[in-house]
Design brief:
Elements: H1 6-13, E1 18-22, E2 28-31, H2 33-39, H3 43-46, H4 72-79, E3 83-90, E4 96-108, E5 111-121, H5 132-138, H6 150-167, E6 172-178, H7 181-188, H8 190-207, E7 213-218, E8 221-226, H9 231-246, E9 249-252, E10 255-258, E11 261-267, H10 274-290, E12 296-298
Parallel strand pairs: 11-12
Antiparallel strand pairs: 1-2, 1-5, 3-4, 4-5, 6-8, 6-11, 7-8, 9-10
Helix pairs in contact: 7-8, 8-9
Length: about 300
């Protein structure tokens, strides 16, 4: 699409939402400042390339690529109807970003001559039990990943046990650990190791719902607290996290690093304490790693 007046570009660049245009071959013809802020790519990185070239590489909850199967732009170019969907795009730095997508065909005299995609990040606001000022005061965030630290996790887990005892609100715990993380530190150095932890943290946060919680347990281990009612739901959530991490990547001096995680999952039972449920999740994680890594294992309480 050609802009008739510079004001059109200035107006679209002022949007916080990401906006880009494609022609009938899905070649990107415009990319606004909002899209750059969300995805990391500049207009010079992406204009002139086909959206199926793999830069954004949209995937669904199961890690399946949408570019050649359920691309909303392709669909609205074919039938001339708007499409709304949800996906995870790949940020320029490698992590995954959960976005809501609205694809709109551009039509003139009944002929589709292109399409517009608008996308916005989905909320990653987590339920908190203390205010931001108190968080700063007690230093409850991990400075590297910006996730809640071990002290905050302990407080949050105790709060869930109170809800469980008083109101019967069930929950589950997932212990997650990066596979072969020591090898990354040894081969590439701790700066790259830190970059990996940051990337993985962002992807994990973006994989979770607003009712879920995740923090850094320590080192390369993370602990998620999930609201769910069945082992099947728990496994599905854990697999969603695992698949998104598997499909994230980090570029290091021209080399692409792919990271995997192992996960141990368990549901709360009446006799549990914060210590027992954490230990059981850790045991499930050990089983996951012993069985080959890059998998989720659900351990039921005896």
């Amino acid at each position: 699409m050609e802009f008739d007046h510079p004001f059109c570009k200035e107006l679209l660049d002022a949007f916080h939402e990401g906006v880009y245009f494609v022609d009938t071959n899905r070649v990107i013809t415009f990319w606004n400042n909002g899209a750059e802020a969300i995805a990391g790519y500049t207009a010079s990185d992406i204009v002139g390339k086909c959206c199926a070239d793999g830069l954004l590489n949209h995937i669904d909850d199961k890690g399946q690529s949408l570019c050649f199967t359920e691309c909303p732009l392709s669909a609205c170019l074919q039938d001339g109807k708007p499409k709304i969907t949800h996906a995870f795009l790949r940020h320029k730095r490698g992590h995954r970003v959960a976005v809501s997508i609205h694809a709109i065909p551009m039509v003139s005299d009944g002929v589709v001559y292109g399409a517009i995609e608008a996308f916005i990040p989905e909320s990653d606001v987590q339920r908190t039990v203390i205010t931001n000022k108190e968080l700063e005061y007690f230093a409850l965030y991990d400075p590297l990943t910006k996730l809640p630290n071990r002290r905050y996790i302990d407080n949050f887990l105790e709060n869930h046990f109170r809800d469980y005892e008083e109101f019967g609100l069930t929950f589950a715990v997932i212990m997650l650990d990066l596979d072969h993380f020591k090898n990354i530190n040894d081969q590439y150095g701790h700066d790259v190791g830190d970059a990996v932890l940051k990337m993985v943290s962002k992807s994990m946060k973006n994989a979770l719902r607003s009712s879920d919680f995740i923090g850094r347990w320590g080192g390369e281990e993370f602990l998620a607290i999930i609201r769910c009612n069945s082992l099947g739901d728990l496994f599905a959530i854990s697999e969603k996290i695992r698949v998104l991490i598997e499909n994230s990547e980090l570029e290091v001096n021209g080399e692409i690093l792919h990271i995997t995680i192992s996960a141990g999952c368990t549901m709360v039972i009446k006799s549990d304490t914060p210590a027992t449920i954490s230990k059981r999740a850790d045991t499930a994680l050990y089983i996951s790693k012993s069985n080959g890594r890059n998998m989720s294992y659900v351990l039921m309480a005896e």
